[in-house]
Amino acid sequence: MQLLETRGVGKIFGRVTALEQMDLVLNQGEVLGLVGQNGSGKSTLLKIIGGLVQPSSGEMLLHGKPVRLRSQSDATMHGIGMVHQEQSLVPNLTVAENIFLDKPNPAKAQGLYRWKQLYEAAAAQLRKIEVDIDPRAIVEDLRFAQRQQVELAKVLAVEDLVSHPPIILFDEPTSVLTPEEIRLLFRQIDRLRQSAAIVFVSHRLDEILHISDRAVVMTDGRKVADEPVSALNRESLYRLMVGRQRAIRAPRGIQSDEADPSKARLQVSGLSAGQQVRPATLSVAPGEILGLLGVQSSGAEEFCRALFGAEDNVQGKIKLNGAQISVPSPAAAVQAGIGYLPANRHVEGMLKGRTLVENMALTFGLDYGHRGILVNRRAERQVATEWIGRLKVKTRSADARIDDLSGGNQQKVVLGKWLLSRRLQLLLLDHPTRGLDPGARDDLFAVIRAEAAKGLSVIFIADTIGEVLDLSDRVIVMRDGTMSAEYNLNRGDAPSEEDLVRAMV
Amino acid sequence: MSHVQPATDPLVPAKPGFAERRAALRRGVPLAVLILLVGVSAIIAPGTLSPAALNGFISDAAPLMILVIGSTIPILTGSIDLSVAGIASITGVMLVVLAPIFGPWTCLVVVLLALLFGALQGWLHAWLQIPSFITTLGTLSMLSGLSLLLSNATAQPLPDSDPFINLLGDTSFDIPNTGFATLVLVAVLALVMRYTRIGRDLFALGAGERAALMSGVRNVRLRSFAFAISAGCAALAGLALVSVTQFSSPTLAGNLLLLSIVGVVLGGTAISGGVGGLWAGVIGGLITAWLRVATVLIGVKPTGQYIVFGVMALIAVFLTTDRTKIGIIK
To answer: Transmembrane segments in this chain: where (chain B) (predicted)?
Structure first.
């Protein structure tokens, strides 16, 4: 049964056409997988259906009747719910308050809360998705995966607002989840499948093929394919999306030189950070790509942040090219030639409101100045523009504001900030592919491989096991703040996914 | 299936987009306001543009301009320095107190002390992570108290042989030297802001503090620098003030605090940091100084001036806040 239809929907931001002539039908009992490269208009389409953005042209029909959604809460009242990529809960309120934040609820009377009824109603919503979370708990006290479940309960509560089947939109929900949490999410989607229309966005083609009934591929704001998943496989989906064949990894010849530690690029001994990272010892060779793997709070992220001096209570010794870094701090790390691409690029990676060149020249622009004192803007601009080209950043101009780019392109700019350095020794990548489409990810990997071949050492925390095996020379698995397994891929170690998962959990 | 962008040239010829036009507007409006203000005043009272009146304006405006330019620097980083009026006031008092010890070098010593004090204040604010608002409110109170204490709450004549004060109080080519001092200060700071790493890092801190820290910007050093500059400028402003009056008064600059901040925001520097700059400070300082003239011209009593300035401050903040930065989706 057809629930929602968009007819010729388009959206123009300033001079940029984000979405053009989009015709889309959402049916009850069907999971629609939506894929496309960064900046292809997926998010815009989802925001239009979710009431967050008003279309510039075209119309939407809900049950055959034209409808205008003026806001997200308006969409909620029409039974349309959206699970955001980054969680949208208010951290200092209770679970129950969050679930009913955007909708009328039984517990408000004459503007006063009736807490008991509110908690009961929330408990009913949580029971519906079979999770055991106390509705009285404060959201910030919950674990990440639990918060995701609350978010899901909040969105699914729209079922009760309308008499018809709800429409649930998932905007890259899996990008921040562990494999176990993804399985839980998929179980919920399977449970909803019959009683709702679902749109599922992911950059992981396997997930799309696994969970969806129908796949829609978008490129440059247009729909280029709309086919049942049974007619597709990984390769054909990739081709539809990227427009070229997938690159196959060529093995590289870098050996990690444990026998001769004097030649190591990085030597870490007894590095710890509070309870999150237990004393760890490690060395990385010049040009080596080391993959770190671990579930959320395994200590992999914290290990990288400790190396960069961005964690509290860092103990232990960090030596780069044999010279010790005295007081760990980001400024000292940068001085020594360590770069860090943060997982949270919005807060820690990019300067909002500034141009691409300004963002990229921030840290190492002076490498291109006079005697390390005076800034040479022309030289900076030139090298930044070169990197914008090499990283294939999709932008109108090097002087565009970084906010105007799509997420994946912003990530490339933040990476460019480090790569344009002439003296970068070690690059730490914390979930570098988060929010990147497969094509952009391959571009990114190619650039990282090329830089590693020139001698840059890389430590990288992957989103998936596949990525780690794809890019790394050596893999270290972390669990509970310690290193639980190590595989040297170039020496013939070939761990299976099962081996790695066993070491992770 | 189309290849989205050729790999070699991803740059489409640049045309100014919406955001750039907005930014240009924000830069252009204060200048237009200044010209309009001067134009209207000249029509109401043509005498305001006579050489004598302009010279009066320059001596009157120079201390305020210097204060505004100094205050701009911490505000660019997202902090604020409220102690500038206190420093400007205590400068005159220190001149009187220290003259017997340092003789002709007193002015230099006073400015150096101010720079040190500012650096310490910036260090306290950044290292101990005390909000600048409260740090400098505290030091403002301390400085005001100290001025009253050191001067016994009375106005005292300056030692008449101080070479630097005499130079500042003099004129060259019939134009007050304080005007030239302001120009030199602006030129030096403009060079630092444009051609050293400091300028860029100041803006970066204001635009996104955590991203700047994670990019290796040295927060504590930079904030110490920013507050040292604002304190140093405040001391210069104090010297410019006493060079006109030839008297030191412990409450000399008390009424300049609001005006200096009004000046910063009227020029288009956002109080949230990261947007604006020295040029904005210059224009904002000129507008504020001219407003003082204009309010008298249109017959606002001196007692009523503060109402005008308060209203101007609100309007200026309203116009200069970069709302896209907050990221609310309408």
So the answer is: 28-46, 175-193, 224-246, 304-321
A263-504, CATH topology level: Rossmann fold (3.40.50)
Q: Among A72-76, A331-335, B302-306, name the one with the lowest average pLDDT.
A: B302-306
The residue extents of the domains of chain B are: 55-253
Q: Which residues of chain B have pLDDT under 70?
A: 1-26, 319-330
- Measured distance CA(A268)–CA(A324) in Å, rounded: 10
CA closest to B211 among chain A residues: A348
pLDDT at B10: 38
Q: Which pLDDT tens digit goes with each residue over A230-270?
A: 888 877 887 777 665 444 445 555 554 444 556 788 888 88
- Nearest-angstrom CA–CA distance, B137 and B80: 10
pLDDT tens digits for range A413-434: 898 889 888 888 889 998 888 7
Enter the tokens of residue B165. 């004060």
Residues A219, B10: C-beta atoms closer than 8 Å: no
Structural contact between residues A285 and A291, judged by C-beta atoms closer than 8 angstroms: no
On whether the CB atoms of residues A468 and A299 are closer than 8 A, the answer is: no
Residues in Cβ contact with A150 at an 8 Å cutoff, skipping those fewer than 6 apart:
A89, A95, A98, A99, A126, A133, A139, A142
For residues B237 and B182, is the Cβ–Cβ distance under 8 A? no
Exposure of A139 by Cβ count < 10 A (0-12 exposed, 13-18 middle, 19+ buried)?
buried
Spatial CB neighbours of B196, under 8 Å, sequence gap ≥ 6:
A373, A374, A375
CA distance B76 to chain A (A): 14
Contact criterion met (CB below 8 Å) for A245 and A270: no
Could you say which of A14, A331, A358 has the minimum Cβ distance to residue B216? A331
Distance of alpha carbon B222 from alpha carbon A268, whole angstroms: 30
Q: Would the CB atoms of A219 and B4 count as touching at under 8 Å? A: yes
DSSP 8-state code for residue A249:
P
User: Which CATH number is A2-242 given?
Assistant: 3.40.50.300
- pTM of the entire structure? 0.72
Chain A residue at shortest CA distance from B273: A353
Size of interface A-B (CB pairs under 8 A): 132
Q: Which residues of A touch B194 (CB under 8 A)?
A: 375
Q: Which residues 6+ apart lie within 8 Å of B288 measured at CB?
A: B64, B68, B259, B262, B263, B266, B309, B312
